[in-house]
Amino acid sequence: MNGKQQVDPTFEALLDYLKRTRGFDFTGYKRNTLFRRVEKRLHDLKIKSFTDYLDYLEVHPEEFPVLFDVMLINVTSFFRDPSAWDYLAEQVIPKLLETRGDDAPIRAWSAACASGEEVFTLAILLAESLGWDAFKERVKIYATDVDEDALAQARASSYTAKDLKPVPEDLRDKYFEQAGERYVFSPDLRNSLIFGRHDLVEDAPISRLDLLACRNALMYFNAETQSRILAKFHFALNDDGYLFLGKAEMLLTQANLFVPTNMKARLFVKVPRRGLRDRIALAAQAGSQEAADQSIEGYQRLREAAFETGLMPTLIIDSDGVMIDANDRARGMFRLTARDEGLPLQDLELSYRPSELRSHIDQAYRERRPVVINDVEWVRGQDILHLEIHIAPLFENNGSRQGAVISFRDVSGFHQLSSEFQRQKEELESAYEELQSSNEELETTNEELQSTVEELETTNEELQASNEELETLNEEMQSTNEELQSMNDELQVRTSQLGDANEFLNSILASVRMGVAVIDEHGAIKVWNSTAEEMWGIRADEVQGRSFETLDIGLPVGDVGRMIDANLRGDGDAEPKTFEALNRRGRALRCRVTATALGRDGSRRGAVLMMEAEEL
């Protein structure tokens, strides 16, 4: 897995638009991570392409904060990775304070601080180690992020009880003040924290730091940008400062800048820069003291034998550039003969092959020091040799030039091993980078999953709240339904009773052998019994709701109507009156009519009219 993403021109156009219009430069960020996050946002908005989304941004500027929140994954918490914070509190901070003394200032930087939870975690640990008074006098913590919205949350230093769940209860009560349903970091210590916008890639780093925390931010950048940021971190830290990274960041390829003090906790120390070491030791060494009784001739033979059997091909030239001697290995390597001795070096092939020697000899004389020509490739027949040529100048005691010794060291085996080592090293570094990339992508995916889980938890809580409300409404509806059922049962009982009463009343009216009509307070007929139907030949449904005076029957309805009106007004006579009338068959009869008021306790709700026929 190489972490590479095929370039999408429309996606690059979107990133360029964000850089030009909003100042956010995502050049150094990993393309696959950005691509995946923005693609998820397009899916949420049901937008099909990055081009359409760019048009959407131009019309809806309120979308920018949402997009940046998606691209800059601000997932953090108090005491995140507790074991790492424990190591920082128990091992690193005490050692740091010990080296600083009692009065020296302590400077810390939380880079990519997001909404501030880890900044305040760091402040709590330093305050616990120093005490509040020393913390306020000595400590400055710089907290930066590229996301202004996240910085605004961090500056407010206000968190919910859920946010503070990882904080031990005693520390929460000590360092946070409750304000309504939220908790605010102690204002007394808050003044030691400085928040500001900072781009890790573009902006200059904060310097002279004792502790730099940048947790799970580097993994969003590509390898080149990571190297640039780490170089800035190296500049920012004091020589004995500490770098605190997230669990997905290992710095395996940056051993020249930082070395781990605890790889599991991701704590590193800075490697101080060393000066250039380009001084080369003198190649000529003084020989051992010869015995006093050794003859000059024997000594000369010994030196010649030692020279002849030397392990490296070697030749000697005098101050005029004439080759005066060559050992056996040199003669065999360069096919030299006795006739070549005494010739100027420039007349020999080896003066320019395998390498140009004369300019380097002049350099050695001029600088009065040995010169080494490294990695000289020489093709000899079917073989390719790699040589290392040493030129050591020789001077008299008075400083005058005497000549030079030229040695040829065959480093072909070393070169092969070095090439193999370099290849293995590159493969190892590539494997480390791939491992780190895979680990960072896994951590990024984990961050995204955690963000999704938090969103799902929020949605679940909302659904649970809605479910509880629905259950409450259901209980209320059930209670209302029970009340309605009770009322319905009571209404059915009342209806049954009313039906019984109506049947009873109708039975009474049917059994009365005289015509009965009930008139309401407005003069309309409400009841007309069967005897009345028989007497006058008109059905009850025909007279229902009509005024008695409008009836066409064989009774002087006008006179009877006045009796009814008098009873409704309350000045009527309860005495019956007899009228000449005709029944439904046209036969003459006398009708005795009695009108009485309907009501009680002095109220008048109508009148009851009773008509009794007497045939002539």
Task: Give an overview in words.
The chain has 616 residues and is of the alpha+beta class. It has 4 domains: 9-71, Chemotaxis receptor methyltransferase CheR, N-terminal domain (Chemotaxis Receptor Methyltransferase Cher, domain 1, Orthogonal Bundle); 82-270, Rossmann fold (3-Layer(aba) Sandwich), CATH 3.40.50; 300-410, 2-Layer Sandwich (Beta-Lactamase), CATH 3.30.450.20; 512-615, PAS domain (Beta-Lactamase). The chain is 45% helix and 21% strand. It is built from 18 helices and 20 strands. The protein has helices at residues 9-22, 31-45, 50-59, 63-71, 82-100, 117-130, 132-138, 148-156, 169-175, 187-190, 223-236, 296-308, 328-334, 358-367, 412-511, 530-536, 540-543, 557-569; strands at residues 106-111, 139-145, 158-160, 176-179, 182-185, 193-197, 209-214, 237-245, 258-262, 267-270, 314-318, 323-326, 371-380, 383-395, 401-410, 515-520, 525-528, 577-582, 588-598, 606-615. The strands form 4 sheets. A 7-stranded mixed beta sheet has the order 6-2-1-7-8-10-9. The chain has a 5-stranded antiparallel beta sheet with strand order 12-11-15-14-13, with helices on both faces. A hairpin with a 4-residue loop joins β9 and β10 (267-270). α1 (9-22) packs parallel to α3, α5 (82-100) packs across α6 (117-130) and α6 (117-130) crosses α7. The longest helix has 100 residues, at 412-511. The N and C termini lie far apart (125 Å). The model is unreliable at 1-5 and 275-296 (pLDDT under 50).
